[in-house]
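DM from R.C. (forwarded with permission)

"hey, sorry to bug you on a friday — could you get me a structure for this? deadline for the figure draft is monday and I only need the backbone to look sensible"
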Amino acid sequence: MRSAVSRFIECVSLSNISLPEKIKHSLLDTLNENMRHPNSQIQNVAVEAFKHFVLAYLVEEKPGDRDAEARVNAVKGLVSACETLCAIKECSQLLPEEDIVSLYHMIMNEVMQSLLEALEDYSVDNRGDVGS
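My reply, with the result:
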């Protein structure tokens, strides 16, 4: 029966049927239970179904819909990376001047554009906070 249920979930996923979030969570819980089952045959069918389930229901279609907190952390990481790269100037004897200049141009053109776009991002995260 467990193998048949996993196969059913696989078929639903392959069909890309629209499902409410509650049903998706229930199906995911069922697959998780089946993957932990001691019978390897049940585990194998559940793993195969899980692959299709992830592609159909868990992979984001629109990257712009990601969680606000994740976007905030991405901006903080980008700032931290720029600070680290700019600290290289203190060790400039290791790099030619043209590499340092190209680094600053890259930060100015590419990274700053991303940071400015992040300022336009206002959304609600899982705690209900507005803005990010």
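R.C.: lifesaver. The helical segments are 2-15, 21-35, 40-58, 68-86, 97-119.
me: no worries. The chain has a mean pLDDT of 78.
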